[in-house]
Design the sequence.
């Protein structure tokens, strides 16, 4: 039985190749506290936008690495070894597959995520 979370997650690709993506417009339109949308597909990977505030749940991705890149705000990524990675604007990090992690945004944060199209954002 799949657990349900109070997040808005849109996995369908919103923009085709050659369509302009306006991140500022997407941010302005977003009214959700934790929003994740697939923007475009690049080969076997996708680029997703996250507009987030608050805590996500602990999870991992058994078969996929995940890259986070902060555009605005601040993202803290808590790791299973009690380490916290702090990301501020124009900073990014790759989380290796199989590593338990939990993203936390102490304030409204806008980020891009690069990951395979098969990844389940809520974890395995």
Sequence:
């Amino acid at each position: 039985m799949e657990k349900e979370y109070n997040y808005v997650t849109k996995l369908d690709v919103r923009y085709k190749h050659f369509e302009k993506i306006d991140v500022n417009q997407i941010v302005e339109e977003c009214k959700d506290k934790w929003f994740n949308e697939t923007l475009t597909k690049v080969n076997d990977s996708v680029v997703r936008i996250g507009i987030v505030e608050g805590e996500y749940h602990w999870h991992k991705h058994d078969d996929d690495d995940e890259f986070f890149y902060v555009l605005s705000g601040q993202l803290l990524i808590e790791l299973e070894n009690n380490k916290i990675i702090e990301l501020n604007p124009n900073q990014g990090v790759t989380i290796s597959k199989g590593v338990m992690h939990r993203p936390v945004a102490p304030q409204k944060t806008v980020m891009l995520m690069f990951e395979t199209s098969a990844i389940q954002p809520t974890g395995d």
